[in-house]
């Protein structure tokens, strides 16, 4: 098995005057991501340009590309900071705000003051917890305890109003005056549903408690009485010093004091925290590096921010030995991470238990409700009104009957007014017509209670679980590359997948692989793209300690550039190339690891880093002979064309979303000090010295535009040499800024900005982020299905447009509307002009089509391309309405240079203005807000960790899996769930109407002919299983057909499976079937002496047979499980009725055996089924023959084969409807 170790060669500190300047510098910034400037932020002001309005449109050539460009003059620069994980407080979220104090400010940039600070005394947990009792390290993720389980679980379950309704019914039935059913029997249905849910919740909570117990009882080595002793995690206190061995998990958030590495480096793996497997470097301060707490007394004070959720930020100061040191994210180890490639590490606990960042981030995604379930509530209200109407009719009829028979009440069995018992004098069982009316109404509610289907809720949960199982097991949504299956993280919105109208997608890592590959470079104005001459040369290698080291990944190289870089020429051209690749190798946070190979003499260097861009650049530098082979906190070693050179790292300004660049200050072997900077072109050119080499700048800008047009990700590289005075000024400024208590983040940004100025332009790089497999086909399929795809990316406009063409999001037939504005008024004019133009294009296209004899007017497809700067002024303003009006006219919307909160704002724009369903899909932490805003959130298990997955409702490995998820599983889930809800309404309403007819023929006394046990078992046993099985297994169309004809997905957009029309047709059908069930036996036995129990058995059997055969008529895909469920339920009903009637102390003893002996009984059952179902059969035939839907046509194609075999037959699909406005 290949072993891994860091290629770090310990070297003593050089005892000279520069020793004071080699202290490593790390800023407490947001998540390092230096290679991806476009993915984290936002927007920059565009180059000055006059407002332009140009349309290139040729109606006679539909293939000609049309561009509608709207640009405005440059105004003051604008920026949006990336949203962090910190609590946003009660202020409303501003999706487009560019204010410096925006709530989108990252938590790592949040300042702290004395009131907000937490004081930790190193190695003195008693004093630390003396004033404020900080949380212990014990964690608890379980929701319940033994004492609180019952009340809390019941409280949560009764949030469903239907449960309160059935509880009220059960309570009413306990009153003697209203007791229709047995008191125990009436509570049984509700108790069963509550019990099933409680068992499920208790099991889930038991698993959480068991996990907590294991976690809390793990052992860690803690300093106690000057000795490291094992201590349970739950007993660790803030302020204690902890020793972590290699491969051990960190028990709490702790500031790193020292490590086994002489330079204080520790390597951690954060896969348990954010899913990222690459190693991160953490550093101990030089002042604490040599302190050994078990051999000498260690003390000090740490002043840090209060606990927060930002796993990428930490803000603190440490006072030790009279010095005050600044602490940042690179000095803290977080709970749940693992120590790798480091023998041991010492740290002091600063956050424990529930205060750790891991626990603060453990909350799941926000709860979402299914759109179908929301619509279902409206129908339940209608059914409630039905129920009230039926009860009112019975009550009114009862009053009329009582008043009409007032003289006979003394002798009638149910209203016997006089008490004839011996010695009694008074009324018996009669309360006057007023109270009798009230009692009749309440008793009617009890008898007709199943009009509201309590079993529907638990049936829906079981069906969703079954649907999720088959989605998870779908082999066509399994990603072999990442070995990841589809995950269903939210069971309550499965059916929403069948109604998606808008898909909002990230680009990098979602449409693309996020596996960067270096393609080309522009160095000192010369383009080294190589054309088709790029080849994979023999890998560059170096020899260290008798071992040959080679980069793990191969890179295609440009032969000319390779020759110049390896010639070691001192010419000016060679010097610029030397500095360019030195910048690529040094300006990063990459950690080189040595990996064993099958050949013991050959080792591979694996460059581990948080940014795929950085990895690609370092591999490229190695391919051209600049191989990074060692990194410590104070220096790096780079093999340059076979010669190892050591560079002291004097300072490092990591990437942040404000500057959009990073820089490193190196002490070179020739004793010079240089600052190397790389970053986004929009920010780099503002710090380039434009006074010299204007031709080089212009050439580089042209090369950047060419690279972007090819879809490449670009970075600009610059440098300058610092004089001794400049370096001293920077160093002193940095020391002041890094120890400031107030405004530290702003001061550090200012220090970085000062040193990153007047740079000499070295060149630019082009990195290819290849499209994922099947993305173009997936987007085309989604658009054919009537789904609008919007892409929201942080990349620059040219790159996004190029990817748009390669992914088939954009086509040459589309007219592009481009909005790049830098003021609110300019945005307003641009939107107005764009709306006018889109309407003109639509009108002209329609007139042209009609003039050409076209049978239908088709509008020219329009694509809207807008940048983040424009969105600053549009979102959260009155311009939102105009933007949506324009976007709704467009086939494609492409948003470039957008910040994370702006992504959420775009989703909200569509979600709040239409009745259509939205889906957001992304792979990174910057996509979380978008994923949580959409109706359905999908996370990609990609290269950027698992933040998006953890916040999503569903997760998968590739974008192309969205097609089977929506078009296949989404269609099936929606069709099944829509039918199941209507069927449950029908099934219960049939029973209620039968009971209602019986009440009308029994003087409104609300007695029931059907045995009370059969009434209870009707929804639980007799009819529940078939609907659940059909809801899980039935398929109206095969996978192949659904994928072949994406237009079939439009059934969900048109709500064909669940709508008001179907509901009312179902109720009419229900009414007719109940008439057949009740009146056919009534007429057949009108003159007979049959007893109530016997005809009640006939009615319950007729209802069960009717509803199951009704279900069988609608089943499309029969399996043995479906047969067993439907026909087995009918058999089970007969068995239950026989058993109930065989119990001698129950009412109706032996009734079934008497009535079943006659032929009339069986003829009635046959007549009921035929009479009840014939109208439904005839109506289905007429509708499917004369007005078939797309699904019915496709089903016939499946049944009779491909229509092409029968001649020129075409399948005409229904048109895609415009979105409904809210």
UniProtKB/TrEMBL annotation:
<feature type="binding site">
    <location>
        <position position="923"/>
    </location>
    <ligand>
        <name>Mg(2+)</name>
    </ligand>
</feature>
<feature type="binding site">
    <location>
        <position position="655"/>
    </location>
    <ligand>
        <name>ATP</name>
    </ligand>
</feature>
<dbReference type="InterPro" id="IPR008250">
    <property type="entry name" value="ATPase_P-typ_transduc_dom_A_sf"/>
</dbReference>
<feature type="binding site">
    <location>
        <position position="507"/>
    </location>
    <ligand>
        <name>ATP</name>
    </ligand>
</feature>
<dbReference type="InterPro" id="IPR032631">
    <property type="entry name" value="P-type_ATPase_N"/>
</dbReference>
<keyword id="KW-0460">Magnesium</keyword>
<dbReference type="GO" id="GO:0005524">
    <property type="term" value="F:ATP binding"/>
</dbReference>
<dbReference type="Pfam" id="PF16209">
    <property type="entry name" value="PhoLip_ATPase_N"/>
</dbReference>
<feature type="binding site">
    <location>
        <position position="678"/>
    </location>
    <ligand>
        <name>ATP</name>
    </ligand>
</feature>
<keyword id="KW-0547">Nucleotide-binding</keyword>
<feature type="domain" description="P-type ATPase C-terminal">
    <location>
        <begin position="949"/>
        <end position="1189"/>
    </location>
</feature>
<dbReference type="GO" id="GO:0140326">
    <property type="term" value="F:ATPase-coupled intramembrane lipid transporter activity"/>
</dbReference>
<dbReference type="Pfam" id="PF13246">
    <property type="entry name" value="Cation_ATPase"/>
</dbReference>
<feature type="transmembrane region" description="Helical">
    <location>
        <begin position="985"/>
        <end position="1010"/>
    </location>
</feature>
<feature type="transmembrane region" description="Helical">
    <location>
        <begin position="181"/>
        <end position="199"/>
    </location>
</feature>
<feature type="binding site">
    <location>
        <position position="506"/>
    </location>
    <ligand>
        <name>ATP</name>
    </ligand>
</feature>
<dbReference type="Pfam" id="PF00122">
    <property type="entry name" value="E1-E2_ATPase"/>
</dbReference>
<keyword id="KW-0479">Metal-binding</keyword>
<feature type="transmembrane region" description="Helical">
    <location>
        <begin position="438"/>
        <end position="458"/>
    </location>
</feature>
<dbReference type="InterPro" id="IPR023214">
    <property type="entry name" value="HAD_sf"/>
</dbReference>
<comment type="similarity">
    <text>Belongs to the cation transport ATPase (P-type) (TC 3.A.3) family. Type IV subfamily.</text>
</comment>
<feature type="binding site">
    <location>
        <position position="508"/>
    </location>
    <ligand>
        <name>ATP</name>
    </ligand>
</feature>
<feature type="binding site">
    <location>
        <position position="793"/>
    </location>
    <ligand>
        <name>ATP</name>
    </ligand>
</feature>
<feature type="binding site">
    <location>
        <position position="508"/>
    </location>
    <ligand>
        <name>Mg(2+)</name>
    </ligand>
</feature>
<keyword id="KW-0472">Membrane</keyword>
<feature type="active site" description="4-aspartylphosphate intermediate">
    <location>
        <position position="506"/>
    </location>
</feature>
<keyword id="KW-0812">Transmembrane</keyword>
<dbReference type="InterPro" id="IPR001757">
    <property type="entry name" value="P_typ_ATPase"/>
</dbReference>
<feature type="domain" description="P-type ATPase N-terminal">
    <location>
        <begin position="120"/>
        <end position="186"/>
    </location>
</feature>
<dbReference type="InterPro" id="IPR006539">
    <property type="entry name" value="P-type_ATPase_IV"/>
</dbReference>
<dbReference type="GO" id="GO:0000287">
    <property type="term" value="F:magnesium ion binding"/>
</dbReference>
<dbReference type="InterPro" id="IPR032630">
    <property type="entry name" value="P_typ_ATPase_c"/>
</dbReference>
<feature type="region of interest" description="Disordered">
    <location>
        <begin position="75"/>
        <end position="101"/>
    </location>
</feature>
<feature type="binding site">
    <location>
        <position position="794"/>
    </location>
    <ligand>
        <name>ATP</name>
    </ligand>
</feature>
<dbReference type="InterPro" id="IPR018303">
    <property type="entry name" value="ATPase_P-typ_P_site"/>
</dbReference>
<feature type="transmembrane region" description="Helical">
    <location>
        <begin position="1124"/>
        <end position="1147"/>
    </location>
</feature>
<feature type="binding site">
    <location>
        <position position="927"/>
    </location>
    <ligand>
        <name>ATP</name>
    </ligand>
</feature>
<dbReference type="InterPro" id="IPR036412">
    <property type="entry name" value="HAD-like_sf"/>
</dbReference>
<feature type="binding site">
    <location>
        <position position="713"/>
    </location>
    <ligand>
        <name>ATP</name>
    </ligand>
</feature>
<dbReference type="GO" id="GO:0045332">
    <property type="term" value="P:phospholipid translocation"/>
</dbReference>
<feature type="binding site">
    <location>
        <position position="506"/>
    </location>
    <ligand>
        <name>Mg(2+)</name>
    </ligand>
</feature>
<feature type="binding site">
    <location>
        <position position="614"/>
    </location>
    <ligand>
        <name>ATP</name>
    </ligand>
</feature>
């Amino acid at each position: 098995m290949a072993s891994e170790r860091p290629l770090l060669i310990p070297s003593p500190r050089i005892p000279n005057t520069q020793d004071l300047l080699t202290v490593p510098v790390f800023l407490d910034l947001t998540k390092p991501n230096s290679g991806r400037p476009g993915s984290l932020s936002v927007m920059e002001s565009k180059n000055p340009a006059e407002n332009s309005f140009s349309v290139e449109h040729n109606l006679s050539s539909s293939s000609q590309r049309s561009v509608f460009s709207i640009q405005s003059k440059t105004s003051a620069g604008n920026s949006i900071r990336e949203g962090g994980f910190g609590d946003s407080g009660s202020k409303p979220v501003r999706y487009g705000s560019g204010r410096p104090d925006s709530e989108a400010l990252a938590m790592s940039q949040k300042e702290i003051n004395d009131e907000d600070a937490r004081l930790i005394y190193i190695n003195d947990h008693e004093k630390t917890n003396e004033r404020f009792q900080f949380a212990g390290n014990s964690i608890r993720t379980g929701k319940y305890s033994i004492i609180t389980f019952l009340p809390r679980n019941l409280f949560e379950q009764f949030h469903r109003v239907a449960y309160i309704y059935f509880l009220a019914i059960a309570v009413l039935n306990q009153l003697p005056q209203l007791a229709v059913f047995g008191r125990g029997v009436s509570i049984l249905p509700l108790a069963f549903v509550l019990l099933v849910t409680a068992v499920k919740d208790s099991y889930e909570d038991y698993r959480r408690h068991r996990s907590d117990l294991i976690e809390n009882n793990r052992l860690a080595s803690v300093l106690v009485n000057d000795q490291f002793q094992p201590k349970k995690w739950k007993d660790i206190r803030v302020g204690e010093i902890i020793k972590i061995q290699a491969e051990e998990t960190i028990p709490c958030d702790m500031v790193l004091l020292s490590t086994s590495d002489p330079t204080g480096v520790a390597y951690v793996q954060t896969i348990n925290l954010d899913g990222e497997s690459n190693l991160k470097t953490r550093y101990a301060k030089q002042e604490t590096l040599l302190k050994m707490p078990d051999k000498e007394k260690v003390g000090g004070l740490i002043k840090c921010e209060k606990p927060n959720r930002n796993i990428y930020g930490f803000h603190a100061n440490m006072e030790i030995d009279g010095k005050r040191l600044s602490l940042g994210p690179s000095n803290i180890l977080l709970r749940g991470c693992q120590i790798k490639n480091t023998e041991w590490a010492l740290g002091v606990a600063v956050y424990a238990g529930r205060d750790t960042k891991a626990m603060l981030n453990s909350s799941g995604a926000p709860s979402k409700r299914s759109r179908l379930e929301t619509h279902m509530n409206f129908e339940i209200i209608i059914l409630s009104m039905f129920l009230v109407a039926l009860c009112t009719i019975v009550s009114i009829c009862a009053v009329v009957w009582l008043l009409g028979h007032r003289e006979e009440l003394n002798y009638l069995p149910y209203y016997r007014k006089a008490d004839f018992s011996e010695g009694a004098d008074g009324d018996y069982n009669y309360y006057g017509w007023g109270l009798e009316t009230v009692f009749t109404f309440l008793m009617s509610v009890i008898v007709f209670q199943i009009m509201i289907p309590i079993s529907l809720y638990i049936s829906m949960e079981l069906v969703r679980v079954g649907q999720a199982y088959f989605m998870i097991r779908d082999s066509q949504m399994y990603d072999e590359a990442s070995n990841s299956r589809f995950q269903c993280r939210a069971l309550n919105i499965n059916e929403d997948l069948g109604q998606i109208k808008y898909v909002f997608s990230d680009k990098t890592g979602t449409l693309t692989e996020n596996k960067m590959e270096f393609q080309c470079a522009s160095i000192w104005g010369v383009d080294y793209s190589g054309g088709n001459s790029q080849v994979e040369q023999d890998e560059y290698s170096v020899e260290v300690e008798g071992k040959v080291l080679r980069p793990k990944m191969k890179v295609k190289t440009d032969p000319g550039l390779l020759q110049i870089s390896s010639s070691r020429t001192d010419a000016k051209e060679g010097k610029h190339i030397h500095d360019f690749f030195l910048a690529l190798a040094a300006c990063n946070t990459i950690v080189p690891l040595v990996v064993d190979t099958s050949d013991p003499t050959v080792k591979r260097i694996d460059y581990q880093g948080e940014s795929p861009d950085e990895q690609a650049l370092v591999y490229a530098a190695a391919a051209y002979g600049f191989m990074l082979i060692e990194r410590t906190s104070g220096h790096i070693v780079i093999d340059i064309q076979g010669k190892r050179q050591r560079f002291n790292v004097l300072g490092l300004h990591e990437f942040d979303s404000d500057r959009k660049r990073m820089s490193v200050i190196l002490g070179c072997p020739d004793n010079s000090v240089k600052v190397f900077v790389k970053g986004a072109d929009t920010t780099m050119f503002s710090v380039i010295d434009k006074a010299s080499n204007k031709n080089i700048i212009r050439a580089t800008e042209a090369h950047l535009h060419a690279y972007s047009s090819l879809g490449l990700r670009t970075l600009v590289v610059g440098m300058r040499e610092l004089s001794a005075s400049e370096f001293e000024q920077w160093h002193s400024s940095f020391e002041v800024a890094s120890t400031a208590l107030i405004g530290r983040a702003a001061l550090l940004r200012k220090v970085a900005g000062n040193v990153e100025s007047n740079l000499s332009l070295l060149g630019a790089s082009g990195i290819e982020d290849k499209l994922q497999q099947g993305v173009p086909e997936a987007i085309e399929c989604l658009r054919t299905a009537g789904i609008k795809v919007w892409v929201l990316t942080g990349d620059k406009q040219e790159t996004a447009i190029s990817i748009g063409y390669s992914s088939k999001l954009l086509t040459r037939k589309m007219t592009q509307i481009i909005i790049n504005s830098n003021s609110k008024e300019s945005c307003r004019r641009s939107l107005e002009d764009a709306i006018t133009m889109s309407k003109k294009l639509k009108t002209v296209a329609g007139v042209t089509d009609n003039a050409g004899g076209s049978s239908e007017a088709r509008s020219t497809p329009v694509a809207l391309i807008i940048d983040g700067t424009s969105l600053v002024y549009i979102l959260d303003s009155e311009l939102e309405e105009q933007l949506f009006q324009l976007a709704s006219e467009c086939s494609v919307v492409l948003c470039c240079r957008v910040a994370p909160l702006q992504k959420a704002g775009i989703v909200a724009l569509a979600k709040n203005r239409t009745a259509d369903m939205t889906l957001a899909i992304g792979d990174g932490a910057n996509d979380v807000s978008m994923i949580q805003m959409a109706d359905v959130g999908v996370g990609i298990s990609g290269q950027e960790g698992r933040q998006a997955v953890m916040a999503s409702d569903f997760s998968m490995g590739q974008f192309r899996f969205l097609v089977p998820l929506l078009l296949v599983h989404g269609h099936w889930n929606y069709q099944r769930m829509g039918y199941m809800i209507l069927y449950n309404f029908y099934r219960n309403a049939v029973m209620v109407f039968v009971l209602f007819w019986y009440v009308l023929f029994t003087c409104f006394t609300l007695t029931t002919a059907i045995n009370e046990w059969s009434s209870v078992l009707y929804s639980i046993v007799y009819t529940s299983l078939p609907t659940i099985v059909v809801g899980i297994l039935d398929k109206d169309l095969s996978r192949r057909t659904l994928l072949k004809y994406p237009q079939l997905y439009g059934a969900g957009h048109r709500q064909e499976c669940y709508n008001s029309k179907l509901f009312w047709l179902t109720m009419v059908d229900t009414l007719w079937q109940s008439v057949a069930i009740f009146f056919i036996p009534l007429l057949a036995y009108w003159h007979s002496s049959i007893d109530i129990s016997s005809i009640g058995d006939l009615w319950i059997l007729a209802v069960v047979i009717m509803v199951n055969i009704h279900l069988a008529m609608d089943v499309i895909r029969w399996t043995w499980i479906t047969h067993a469920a439907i026909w087995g339920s009918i058999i089970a009903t007969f068995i239950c009725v026989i058993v109930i009637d065989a119990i001698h102390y129950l009412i109706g003893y032996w009734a079934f055996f008497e009535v079943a002996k006659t032929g009339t009984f069986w003829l009635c059952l046959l007549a009921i089924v035929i009479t009840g179902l014939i109208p439904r059969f005839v109506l289905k035939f007429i509708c499917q023959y004369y007005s078939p839907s797309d699904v019915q046509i496709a089903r016939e194609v499946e049944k009779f084969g491909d229509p092409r075999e029968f001649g020129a037959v075409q399948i005409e699909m229904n048109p895609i409807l415009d979105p409904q406005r809210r």
